[in-house]
Amino acid sequence: MSPGVLTLKGIRARPLQRPVVARIATLTDWPLILIDLYTEEGVVGRSYLEPYTVRTMAYLVPMLRDLGDLFAGQPLAPAAMFAAARKSLHFVGYQGLSMIAASGIDMAAWDALAKAANLPLCVLLGGSVGAVKAYNSNGLWLKEPAVVAEEAIALRDEGGFAGLKLRLGRERPADDMKAIAAVRDAVGEDTALMADFNQGLDLADALRRCPMIDDCGLAWIEEPVVYDNLDGCAQLAAELRTPLQIGENFYGPRDLHTALQKKACDLVMPDFMRIGGVTGWLRAAAIAGAAGVPISTHLYPEVAAHVMRVSETAHWLEWQDWADPVLMRPYRVREGMLHIPDEPGLGLEWDERAVQAHLVQ
Predict the structure, then answer these.
(1) Same domain, 109 and 168
(2) Across residues 153-179, what is the average pLDDT?
(3) Residues 112 and 130 in one domain
(4) Rounded to two decimals, what is the model's pTM?
(5) Which of 47, 65, 158, 241 is least buried, going by the fewest C-beta atoms within 10 A?
């Protein structure tokens, strides 16, 4: 079947609420929205969204259904749909939940097209099936240094990872320094360590605290200040030797372009539900590639692996397995590499027993 003959029939969006129980942490109420995109030709595209807060799903699910109604009966053309979705949002703004909903449908549309072509998404996009370098981002929260160091060994060994993300922002900067030192001693010099402040500092604190860790050999310092303070990020990027990483809160490719124009970062890591799904990522990756800026992914490893295979400056894939319990065949990590299955589309199939167990009524 040619992917050009698909016609969108409708969207099913199902909200789930489930605990994430990882080796090193438990998130009691992790929201997940499963998206099934139906076509008149019988091909079903799948994707999911992880909108962080349970309450958000009450707004996102109707948006997804409304966009499904908007596109019903139209050819399944992600670029045209992306443009139409943005145009429909002119008067309410591109940022926020509206872009997230459009991104979810975009990812499902690309999955459907690749399935119709009987190709893995990365091959449809002009790449090849293979492995992608990943770091483990499943934990290393703000715990005691000895506890974090022990967890770092477990996280490294569970997939042979060559990189780990460490969360920072303890009340005392000295405790962050101790945590970095403890993890480094535990996993050795050959393991890349990424440090993430999760926007937890104001600019004054960031200017004081980031230089303290500038000689720790970190792969990057991520989001020390609130995401839209690009001027503050630019000041930090200019003063630090350690690369500054931002981007998970870019809403569309133009936000990435603006950040690079302002010299607000050395590295970028768009999130698929904010950047515009696969279509938004491809455009953002082209901007990063033209600037020679390394681009990493944020969440959604199944989609991330495919687009990293066609991104000029592909850097690191962020590995989190929080959606695995509802997937029939989760992706696997071996020797620090996420391996793309040689299957049509993204290879996403829902485990309906798990879905029904966590469905929000």
Answers:
(1) no
(2) 97
(3) no
(4) 0.95
(5) 241
